[in-house]
What does this fold into?
Amino acid sequence: MITDSAKISIPNIDNEMKQQLMDNGTIKNFKAGDVILQENSYIKTLPIVLQGSLKVMREEEDGKEILLYYIKAGETCVMSFLGGISNDKSKVKAVVEEDSEILLIPIHNAQDWVSKYPSWCDFIFKLYHKRFEELLSVVNAMAFQKIDQRIVELLNKKYQLTGNKEISVTHQQLADELGTAREVVSRLLKQLEREKKISLSRNKITIL
Amino acid sequence: MITDSAKISIPNIDNEMKQQLMDNGTIKNFKAGDVILQENSYIKTLPIVLQGSLKVMREEEDGKEILLYYIKAGETCVMSFLGGISNDKSKVKAVVEEDSEILLIPIHNAQDWVSKYPSWCDFIFKLYHKRFEELLSVVNAMAFQKIDQRIVELLNKKYQLTGNKEISVTHQQLADELGTAREVVSRLLKQLEREKKISLSRNKITIL
DNA sequence: ATAGCTATGTGATATATATCACTGACCTGT
DNA sequence: ACAGGTCAGTGATATATATCACATAGCTAT
It folds into this structure.
């Protein structure tokens, strides 16, 4: 399958590598809300985000969940990488955040390339490291910060993702991503509005 | 510097690789409590634990901290790996848990070997993955579990580390590792003792 | 325009954990 | 055996968050 080379823009990936990605991968389009990777499912492909973004969540049986990090354009899901190789079931859920175009690479290719192409190996290592630091900051937030600070940081992350100060999200969604209750989020958001840091309307929060 | 080959037992590391480790590494001994890696310090060596164990903590400025995971014999600190390469300051603190013998590898060697020796690359990737999952379980614990459950799991981890049901630890240490207060731990331990799950004495907790 | 749905606002109350204040128990060095 | 330190036990209280219960607001389809 031949895909459009122009679409693949990954930092520090050389042309030979890019050719491999094009020859072996398949491009698919997804809509916001689509689930790319289910918790406890087996992993057969490595998703590389070409456009849009995914969010990766950890989920508890009872439906409670918490946001781990976002996967942006030019990045991939490291959990899929070694998880796929060791034939693990996925321990996380990946959901499309913004409408996305995703390049799916068979997991065995992704593995082979590590020893063949230094730029690929480097790409994977750098991402592992980035995710590791992001997870660390989740741990940090949960251990040392109160929920109001965490809400502010989450809103800022969403702003950075899209560059838009108008964030389309419900209180329930924020509560889910923070692993808390909707009422808690509503109250704290109201407080932030009183402090003139944000303004609230239905399905939308605007950063001031 | 030539070190004793017999001491180096790392799963799936071949002899050529082992020779490299011996030729380029230095063995040092540390006592329980020694700090191997300070938060915010630069990283110049990759520590491989030959005997004993380390614990890796995340620390907040005000002295509050939380346990991330243990590094056991035959393992290394992945945070040091790419952190060292990108010349990052360490975001974690590593403390010797049990008296340890540690092989220190210059960080540039560790990096070079990734492309030269597939077994080394594999070793590093597998560890990244393992740590990733451990961090995930820390996130999980903090998000979804109450402190009493977390104490029980921490005691079990410590038991698995040494194989000894008598655990030498103070309530303060447990509180630090869980990121909570000593009184909270004392009360919950007392409760566990009433339930006949453990028995308490000064500096020691015995799992029943 | 109405019905029905989803999202939000908010009081009341429950619970887990954090903090403060103090006591006594145990250990170590002299 | 005593002094001074560290460790553990525990009441009282404060705080953050979770849960329950309900009211109202805004959107959507007919």
Q: What stands out?
A: Chain A is about 45% helix and 25% strand. The mean pLDDT of chain A is 90.
